[in-house]
Design a protein that fits this description.
This protein is α+β, with helices and mostly antiparallel strands and about 100 residues long. It has helices spanning about 5-15, 20-35, 85-100, and strands at about 1-5, 45, 50-55, 60-70, 70-80. About 40% of the residues lie in helices and about 30% in strands.
């Protein structure tokens, strides 16, 4: 499946530490290769149509994504600092998803 990376997500990825950038890009490659068959520990369903890509390491990174038409769309990303996913981040991804579907 083809991956569409939002420009905001791309800026976020390249703002990370070098080692984390490499892990993130590797995990995105896994997502591209396995699509909706990618599961834990790399991917987890968050809500109805939104999933999170999980990158572990020095920086805990989460990237929300969805499947739209024939591609995977990376919606938003953040560095996770606590156990709970921030509601603000989930809301941002949800709004971007709503803008994709008319």
């Amino acid at each position: 499946m083809r991956i569409h990376i939002d420009s905001e997500v791309e800026k976020f990825i390249y703002s990370l530490e070098k080692q984390t950038i490499a892990k993130t890009l590797r995990t995105i490659d896994l997502l591209e290769k396995f699509g909706n068959k990618l599961a834990m520990p790399h991917s987890k369903k968050v809500t109805g149509n939104i999933f999170e890509l999980r990158i572990r390491g020095q920086q805990e990174v989460r990237i929300f994504y969805c499947f739209h038409k024939d591609q995977i769309r990376l919606l938003s990303g953040f560095v996770k600092k606590s156990q709970k996913t921030p509601a603000k981040e989930l809301l941002k991804a949800g709004n971007k998803y709503k803008n994709l579907t008319p």
